[in-house]
Sequence to fold (1080 residues):
Amino acid sequence: MRFVLRMAARETRASWRRLLFFFVCIAVGVAAIVALRSVIQSARGVFGTEAKALIAADVVFSTSREWSDAARAAIDKRLTEAGATVRTETIETPTMVRPADGRAVARVAEVRAIQAEFPLYGALTLQGGQAFSHALVENHGLVVRPELLTALGVAVGDAIVIGQATFTIRAVLAKEPGRGMGGFSLGPRVLMDYADLPSTGLLGFGSRAGRQLLAKVPENQIDALVRATRQELRSEFANVRSYRSNEDQIGRDFDRAENYLSLVGLIIVILGGIAVSSVTRVFVLQKIRSIAVLKCVGARSAQIIAVYILQVVALGLVGSLLGVGIASAAVASIPYALASSSSLLAQAHYGVTASAAAQGVGIGVLVSLLFSVAPLLQVRFVKPSLLLREESVRGKRDWLGIAVLVAVAAGLVAITAWQAASLRVGLIVCAGFTGLAFVLTLAGRALVAVVAPLANSRSFPLRHAVLHLSRPGNQTRVILLAVGLGAFFIVGVRSLQATLLNEFSVQVSDESPDMFLLDIQRGQVDGVRAFLSDPAHGSGDFQLIPVMRARVTGVTGRQTTLESVEEVRRRGSLAREYTITYRDHLESNEHVREGRFWNGPAPEPEVSIERSIHERFNIDVGDLMRFDILGRVVEARVTSVRDVEWRESRNGGFMFVFRPGPFDQAPQTFVSPLKGPSDPASRARFQHDLVEKFPNVSVIDFREVLETVRDVMSKVTLAITVVGGLVLFSGALILIGAVAMTKFQRVYEAAVFKTLGANTRTIARMLLLEYGVLGALAGLVGSLGAIVLTWGVSRYALEIPWRIFPRENVGGVVLTAILVAAIGVLSSLDVLRNKPLSTLRAE
Amino acid sequence: MIELREVSKTVMSGTEPLTILHPLTLQIPRGQFVAIVGPSGSGKSTLLGLVAGLDSPTTGHVIIDAVDITALGEDALAKLRGEKIGFVFQFFHLIPSLTAYENVIVPMEIAGIADAPARTDALLDEVGLRGRAHHYPSQLSGGEQQRVALARALANDPPIVLADEPTGNLDSHNGRHIMELLRTVHTRRGSTIVLVTHDAELAAMADARLVLRDGRVVENTVGAARVAVHSEMRSRA
Fold:
């Protein structure tokens, strides 16, 4: 044992510099794991302590319709039974707001009408530290978010118009618990008095108002109350949640985020592990004589393997600790980055948590160990007789080798499953990674084969550059894998972003609709039509489409029979609220796949379903579907299945289209896709004038949505690019390490070449070409992968047309080639500098 | 005592089997200084490798102190080498990442010897390299490296020292120095020494000669020769 420890220390002393880069690679991955886990755990702490404030109550009942008498009665009864002490109601609705001074601006905002008791827990914070009191909103007062002031060009004290009523802005809202946690919102928050809402006229039929009933309930009654009311409100389209179920949900979301995000770090660690494996193989080859000597003086194979494993584990441990150090620095800088943020996340105390650090170090050491064991087994095949005569070590696969490989694979799956907290995810990630690595390796090998004929080139440097790619002990495959994977991440996500932005731009820029009117009442249809037809307003083509909101409550069919709302709910998204329409024709972006589309109205309800409903829920032509359309039960026979070209769906893509007839007189609102005026000033005036005349109508401006999408997407792209950058960085480290590893061999070769008359420039050109070709191959591998990725995502996930983006792809290949060539040559500088004689004499 | 019974070695040369050592039977008494001589390719080093258990014979048995080493596994062979055999190579074969001192102490550490540091110092003294103890092999001359290798071979005070052309890679001055050291080891410690060389002058310093040509023995004075005068100094088995 003493021998093993001492020998490991001596070997580490001798070779840590050469192995350093591989363990820095492990450090980068460990840092990613530790930092991500720590940040998410810290953020989670805030949410944990504020669980009640997040929903402002113990229990919240919510509905997207008006409360039915039955639901009201049931809730009242249960709350009384549970001994609820305080309750309050709020209504949320998106709507247009505009300044009262007649300036031509209008904005979508999210209005929340609140009573005096709101919030039951937590506090609303105003800008400037002023305390919120309900008196601020009484008598047509408003408290608004600062973004609205900027958007409308108004200030505290100014009057703005919402619906049919005029309000005064009394204060600016800084923080509202539970809001702004990354959820999608249509516009800035506006708080008004519950009593003032009716005066706006926004609660008319078809409004998209959401109603909440908040209550304080004795702690021991909460769970029973939630259970009982959920049961009773099953068919009421109402939702019940307690701060605790909310907390659980948030907890699960955090768990998932933590586990999945840290897989990125794990992939970097595994990449480092692959590099460790590859370098260990080379290391054993280089140490072959020393190993033979040790055997000659009495060391057993197991002792020698133990020496090297100890060395790898020690370096893995140092790398992991370095990773924890990097993570600490990164995490410590977060408060500075969030200093100006009003988000709840800025309140968290960020620091590396002990559990994250322990996991990071554990993974770093385990991965180093797992990946070095298999190549170290080769030590067993080193024969001491090679000290007497030249003989090569032939690697063999024996049962021990196979058993170790199986154990290593199982260990990796276990680590991944542990990190993802799911065996299934662990298996999928491992299989995916293995598949990807396999494909990248195959692609790399194929590409090396493709360039192999260059070995017959007339150019001396090119010939040798290509030969070097397949020299013994080369690191070509592992560099291709690591650098290729990094390039794949970056080029892939950039291409996806380009694909999506391109798609949105096409949608917005052509002659198709770029504005969308919502909530047009039946009585306003003629007025709106007249307004839109008036050339003075500058808008183009438009359509007025009647819509209703409906839920599926049952299906009686050949393959699928769902008796109750409960059974429909088990089918997931089938239970969501759908917007439906009726018409007597197919739109230009639709065609019938199965059945026949009707001709003209009929007295009996018929429905045409979209293909995905047919495919996902096995609902066929001839089946009967039961709908709840605003409280009315409608049973309709499915008479056709439509394909909808969603890309061209701005004229309205609907999952369910009904045959006209039964709905003509039903309560409904209208939406209108239209081509708005072209310049921003007329667009603003158009919105203002429209809202002035029809105050309840909301306008969605696709051009603004595009801006938001662009913004969100560039943030997501940046995040993924950072990840890709880390992977690429690891690739660069592996590359530097590989160069350092084989340097002595190169120094020797360069010396021989120099002796044979090659000058430094020729050798530099040789190196440049070798790494340039390697980098180009890695870029090509990544780029091809990215093309496959965008093709798959475009075709199957987004269903948008696929195209290649030459800038991203060619740029990716060129930049990777330059990067690898530069790193390769820079880290080989002393190969160039060495004087041949001293090198040859040293040999 | 080293005993070879009908030992031969055949290797594959391309697709053809090639016998590099024809069946040979030989006994080397304890304490004898034997020189194996012969031209390149005559099978000298192969024979030495078989005695050290570095290689296994195609036929026959190698018996060292009544133990048939041809029946031993790799690990048992390693243990036997650590305890009984010191080996000196033509190309030194020091571990480049270790200092002279560490190269010498390693066999003792493997064998778990308690006073290893003191013995290492003594051994380096014996080969005259105390002052170079913390130099790496690349910082030593060829002669110095071979003296370190000799000290390493003596680390566990083995009853048998095998030397494969130990002077073959040295100039004549350093070569003589090494030979003197080997002679001293033989006389002072009474070790059995088997020296492979093609230098007749060096071979003349031995008690007995085994001459090989094309894998066959052409002259053998081993066993017949008198055992080294100082063998009685050996107190060990």
Summary: The interface with chain A takes residues 45-46, 48-49, 52, 54-55, 74-75, 78-79, 81-83, 87, 89, 91, 93-98, 102, 106-107, 109-112, 138, 152, 155-156, 164 of chain B (CB under 8 Å). Chain B has one domain: 30-54+83-231. Helices of chain B lie at 44-52, 74-84, 100-111, 116-126, 142-153, 172-189, 200-203.
